[in-house]
Amino acid sequence: MVDDTKLITKIIIRELQTTLKELALDKSARRLLLQLLHPNYSRYLNTDGLASLNSTVPSLSSKNESEIKSKKLSRDEESSKEAAKSDIPEENLDEESTKEVATTDSDMEATESGKSDTPEENLNSAEGGKKDPSLRRRELLVNSGLAENLIDVCIENAEELLTSNFGKEVIFEVAKGGSDGILHPTLDEKLNNLHEAIAELAAKPKSDESEEEHVLENFHSSRTIRKLILDCPAFASTLWKKSLEGKCQLWAQGHSSKVVSAFLESSDSEVRKVAKEELQPLVDDGTLKIPETKQSANEN
Prior knowledge:
The chain is an all-alpha fold. The protein is built from 16 helices and no strands.
């Protein structure tokens, strides 16, 4: 909410950067990161949380109507005193007073509508500053170096974040590039490295003897990877080439089937095209199940 993003970076962001993994895995702390990556999203903030972000801060709010009226009366009194001391003929005093009142009424209307011609230092918005929110967000997330460090943490701890009930949302938003593509194109190279790291995990051989679940079979990670296929064509392309091409029959059952089927459910024609030759036979023989409505919608 504060416009001085350099000060916030120095005092707050720098401290957060030393504990990004812990923040991403924490039920409450992750919301700080998610609010920057995907602001005001009801999936990450409940109704009360969203309401608190939109609450008016009294010390930052525009003056209320009673204060404005009080100010108007004071200005009228001052105007009358000044007029009495001047050489303005008495018959013109009413005209001068009317002009003053009109100006004040105009100020009140402007205040109520959020617009005013008053000096800049007298303007206080409920949002807490004059800077454009998208610019403030970019300065805090990208320019501060926070996003770059967060991508590094996601690369180093990809498996732990993907399989975590809380961390999965952070790595999903990061890998996608944030809402409105805020991490593109500045951090494209880093994001490609993250896509590669996730694809390498998915490329590990399936083993019934391993005590750890494969990321394509784990409940949390399989759904997160599926969402990335649907929302991020660049990731889908990397995953297909490095992990799934020629191996889809192996993953066509269980939780992993949701990952495989996502290629045919994608709204991106290139993503569907690259996988259709291998996946369509699995659909035709009943090995791979895809909701008919989703498949027909994409084909149309």
